[in-house]
Write a structure and sequence with these properties.
It contains six helices and 15 strands. It is of the alpha+beta class. It folds into two domains: 117 residues, Alpha-Beta Plaits (2-Layer Sandwich), CATH 3.30.70; 133 residues, Alpha-Beta Plaits (2-Layer Sandwich). The strands form four sheets. Strands 1, 3, 6, 7, 8 and 15 form a six-stranded antiparallel beta sheet that branches. A four-stranded antiparallel beta sheet has the order 10-13-9-14. A hairpin with a 2-residue loop joins strand 7 and strand 8. The radius of gyration is 18 Å and the shape is globular. 31% of the residues are buried. The C terminus is likely disordered.
């Protein structure tokens, strides 16, 4: 289930770095570490976007000028999702970068039905390589049109599906079909415009800074329906619980959502 968390912005014009996933990940980690439910302290089966709103770009990063700022949060575990939302709405004031945010409301997106061939857009960068301490391997560039790129994402996806405990060994073995096919026209246009679809991004784990290469481009995924649904809900690649790998279905109307009115989160 994907949920839109809407915040009121109290200081219009404030900014965050262009890539601010690590700031959101630190905030979420703090909510879980210092929250009352200890069983969720190490929970990682969720995914989230960057902050969305009316922005302008400067050398400092993204300046927000809208009254409301939105975060898309995805987690199929309803118990964790409700707990996480209660923790967010227990905060009277939230600082992300220089943004002063106050939790306002929540909206659930309508479910998306996915088949065995889906075209996805990257809401946040996909990371195909695991990061290691004092290891530059995670910054290696891999051609997204190569079999290696698909194979790495396949390995990451199957491992994460196995870790949930929701799929049997027989089911996982049946999910052998997996191919990521980037939009070749998009890649060509980006390269001709001398822009980048792959960049180095920071992330933090156990207070240690890592750098990883993330990729952002539209692509078609050929895989079993269960795999497609998993990456839509959990993200694709590594470090999805740190804000990487969030996808959206191409041609899906993001405005289709239902306002939550069944739960009131106390502050």
């Amino acid at each position: 289930m994907r949920t839109r968390i809407i915040f009121s912005l109290k200081n219009r014009g404030a900014y965050v770095p262009f890539h601010h996933q690590y700031l959101l990940a630190q905030f979420i980690k703090g909510l879980l570490l210092f929250g009352p439910e200890k069983s969720f302290q190490s929970f990682t089966h969720f995914n989230f976007s960057g902050l969305k709103g009316q922005t302008k770009i400067s050398r400092k990063g993204l300046h927000f000028y809208s009254a409301k700022v939105t975060l898309v949060f995805s987690c199929p575990d309803q118990a964790f999702r409700n707990y996480f939302l209660s923790q967010v709405f227990g905060q009277k004031d939230i600082m992300i970068g220089s943004l002063h945010l106050v939790p306002d409301s929540v909206e659930d997106e309508q479910p998306v039905h996915i088949g065995d061939e889906s075209k996805f857009l990257c809401i946040s960068p996909i990371v195909p390589l695991q990061a290691g301490f004092n290891d530059e391997q995670s910054k290696k560039f891999i051609n997204p049109e190569s079999d290696e790129f698909s194979d790495l994402l396949y390995d990451a996806t199957i491992k994460r599906m196995e870790d949930t405990g929701q799929f049997s060994a027989e089911q996982l073995a049946s999910f052998y079909k997996f191919q990521v096919v980037p939009d070749a026209d998009y890649l060509q246009r980006i390269q001709e415009a001398h822009k980048k679809f792959a960049r180095i991004y920071p992330l933090y784990d156990n207070d240690v800074k890592f750098e990883v290469r993330g990729y952002t481009f539209p692509f078609t995924l050929y895989a079993a329906r269960e795999v497609q649904q998993f990456v839509y809900e959990h993200g694709l690649g590594y470090f999805c619980h740190k804000g990487f790998g969030m996808l959206d279905v191409a041609h899906n109307d993001p405005a289709q959502r239902n306002a939550r009115q069944d739960v009131v989160y106390a502050r």
